[in-house]
Amino acid sequence: MKIQQNLLFFLEMETVRICVFLLLFLSQTWAETDELQMVDMKQDVGRDNSKCNITVNFWAELKELRDMVITSKSKIEKLEEEKSELLSRVTTNENKVALSDARLSASESETEELKRQITETPKVAFSVGLTDAREIGPFNTEITLKFSKVFTNFGQAYNTHTGVFTAPLRGVYYFRFTGFSVKTNHWFGVILYHNNKRVSWNTDYNDDVFYASISNGLPLELEKGDVVYLVLPSNHVKYDDSYNRTVFSGFLIFPL
C-alpha cells in the first residue's frame, strides 16, 4: 500500500515536472514567435518605408526630369528664335548681295557699253593757228580764214586748205576762237559760220590801243557733213605770229 502511494506520488511529481517543462517550453516558443513577429513587422515597416522612399525618390526624379524637359524646351524655343533671326539676316544679306551683284553687273555692262562707244565713236578734235605772216587784211569782201598751223587734228575733220571743219558724224561739238590786232584805228574780228548761217559776229575797233583781242566759244549741234568755219569781215584786219595769238579749236562733245 505504501509502495503504491509512493509510486503515485512519484508519478504525480513527474507529471507536474513534465507540465512545468511543457509550460516553460511553450513560453519560450511564444516569446520567440513574438520576437519573430516583431522582426517581421519591423521588416515589413522597413520594406514599407523603403517602398515609400523609393516612391518619393521616383516622383522627385520625375519632377526633376519634367523641369529639365521644360527648361530644354525653353532653350530650344530660344534657339529656334535665334535661328529664325539668323536666317532672316542671312536672307537679307543674300538679297543685299544679289542687289549688289545686279548693280555691279549693270555697272559692268554700262562700263562695257561706254568702252564700246569710246572705241567705236570717232575721235574728233582740232586746234589750229592762223599764220606767222602777222597782219592779214583789210579786204573789200569777206574771206574764209585758212588756219595753216596745225596743233591737233584728230579725225582730220579740219581742212587747212579750205579752212573748213566738216562734221564726220551727227553730234554736239564745241568751238572756240581768239583774235588779235595791232593795227590802230581799224576794225578787227571774225564771224563764225555754220553752213551758210552766221552764228556769231565778233568784232571790235582798235582805236589808239596797240594790242587788242577778242575771244568766244559755243557748242553747236551738227549733222553729219555740216561745216563750220571762220570768216574775216570786209574792211577788217587780223594779226598772228609765232606766238599763236589767233587760234581756232573744236571737238566732239558727244554723238547723237
What does the model show?
46% of the residues lie in helices and 32% in strands. With 256 residues, it is of the alpha+beta class. Strands 2, 3, 5, 6, 8, 9, 11 and 12 form an 8-stranded mixed sheet that branches. It is rod-shaped. The chain starts with a helix and ends with a strand.
- Which regions contain 5 or more consecutive residues with pLDDT less than 50? none
Number of strands: 13
Overall structural class, as computed from helix and strand content, comes to: alpha+beta
The main sheet comes to: 8 strands, mixed
Helix run count = 1
Question: What separation lies between the terminal Cα atoms?
Answer: 174 Å
Determine the mean pLDDT. 77
Tertiary shape: rod-shaped
> How much beta, percentage-wise?
25-35%
Question: What is the alpha-carbon Rg in Å?
Answer: 64 Å
What is the share of helical residues? 40-55%
What is the string of SSEs from the N terminus onward?
Answer: HEEEEEEEEEEEEE
Question: Strands, helices and their partners?
Answer:
Layout: H1 2-120, E1 125-129, E2 134-136, E3 143-144, E4 149-154, E5 158-159, E6 164-166, E7 171-181, E8 186-194, E9 197-206, E10 212-222, E11 227-232, E12 236-240, E13 247-255
Parallel strand pairs: 8-12
Antiparallel strand pairs: 1-4, 1-13, 2-12, 3-11, 5-6, 6-11, 7-10, 7-13, 8-9, 8-11
In brief, what are we looking at here?
Residues 119-256 form the C1q domain. The chain has 256 residues and is α+β, with helices and mostly antiparallel strands. The chain contains one helix and 13 strands.
